[in-house]
């Protein structure tokens, strides 16, 4: 059984999640943003970060990665091939347009996942990567037991943002339909708590 904590970030109200097997001291962080609440939660609960899972690689979903990695050097970052490129390109990850050019410091820590691949969180718990492009080619929806982490590929009640570079409306609609099928019987945990800003992330 998976325990999940969520944190609404100061930048575009993106959401970071910490997941772990109940009673385990090994945690995985999804889309690290504001680092202080994440570190406080980890410390309070005596948790060690094993991996960072990214729903996609826009700046508002990755800006806490370097600081988290600096304190958990052995953990790995999970994204797809396009995400790897974005993590080292401030133009592609959009940080350049926020006057805060951002690159991942430990590029060797990035692990590329394939569509449908399962990662083992604990001996009896796994999380599956489902590629859901449209908002961005790096988009991955993560399935873990009764939870589905949709990033910006699907935010209930909001239209998927497709006016950014590399977005694709046709792919976005197909991904939304896939997510809706996969979400049956699962709790949807999206990438933002409130409506995106006008330029979207």
Distance between the termini: 31 Å
- Identify the strand order in the major beta sheet: 1-2-3-4-5-6
Q: Would you tell me the structural class of the helices and strands? A: alpha/beta
Task: Report the order of strands and helices.
Answer: EEEHEHEHEEEEEHE
* Cα gyration radius (Å): 15 Å
Question: Hey, roughly how much beta strand do the residues contain?
Answer: 25-35%
Mean pLDDT: 93
* Low-confidence runs: 195-201
Oligomer kind: single chain
* Major sheet characteristics: 6 strands, mixed
Helix content percent band: 10-25%
Shape from CA axes? globular
Number of discrete helical segments: 4
How many beta strands in the DSSP annotation? 11
Features:
201 residues; alpha/beta; six-stranded mixed β-sheet; 4 helices; 19% helix
Describe it:
The protein is of the alpha/beta class. 19% of the residues lie in helices and 29% in strands. Helix 3 (81-87) links the parallel strand 5 and strand 6 (110-112). The longest helix has 14 residues, at 169-182. The chain starts with a strand and ends in an 11-residue tail after the last strand.
